Amino acid sequence: MSDPKALSPYDLLGGSPVLRQLVDRFYDIMASDPRAAGIHAMHAADTGLIREKLFEFLSGWLGGPELFVQKYGHPRLRARHLPFAIGEDERDQWLICMYQAMAEIPMDEGLRSHLEEAFFRTADFMRNKE
């Protein structure tokens, strides 16, 4: 049985304000880092809606409020990404942006390591092309 007082990754990260900072920084890096040009091109010029959706998804994914599920239902993450050709290059571009955004946010090294592994597994699961 798990400890009900144990803090979630969402709490350990710093909750909503820090998660918002992480998501905004992620998309700012995607827009400015030439190594992410491929995945940046997959996004609309106005990233307001997708920033909000990632924030809402990550809130629940990290153990905080299930904002995405409350609005849209089950994330069906892989199905939502099928319209986009995602291979190892695209996965790695996404990870470059997320890892850089994470590097700019103070956090416990254990949490950072846990999140890097979890983000890798999730990003790798999105691959739908060779």
TrEMBL record:
<dbReference type="Pfam" id="PF01152">
    <property type="entry name" value="Bac_globin"/>
</dbReference>
<keyword id="KW-0479">Metal-binding</keyword>
<dbReference type="InterPro" id="IPR001486">
    <property type="entry name" value="Hemoglobin_trunc"/>
</dbReference>
<keyword id="KW-0813">Transport</keyword>
<comment type="similarity">
    <text>Belongs to the truncated hemoglobin family. Group II subfamily.</text>
</comment>
<dbReference type="InterPro" id="IPR012292">
    <property type="entry name" value="Globin/Proto"/>
</dbReference>
<dbReference type="GO" id="GO:0005344">
    <property type="term" value="F:oxygen carrier activity"/>
</dbReference>
<dbReference type="GO" id="GO:0020037">
    <property type="term" value="F:heme binding"/>
</dbReference>
<keyword id="KW-0408">Iron</keyword>
<dbReference type="GO" id="GO:0019825">
    <property type="term" value="F:oxygen binding"/>
</dbReference>
<dbReference type="InterPro" id="IPR009050">
    <property type="entry name" value="Globin-like_sf"/>
</dbReference>
<dbReference type="InterPro" id="IPR044203">
    <property type="entry name" value="GlbO/GLB3-like"/>
</dbReference>
<protein>
    <submittedName>
        <fullName>Group II truncated hemoglobin</fullName>
    </submittedName>
</protein>
<keyword id="KW-0349">Heme</keyword>
<dbReference type="GO" id="GO:0046872">
    <property type="term" value="F:metal ion binding"/>
</dbReference>
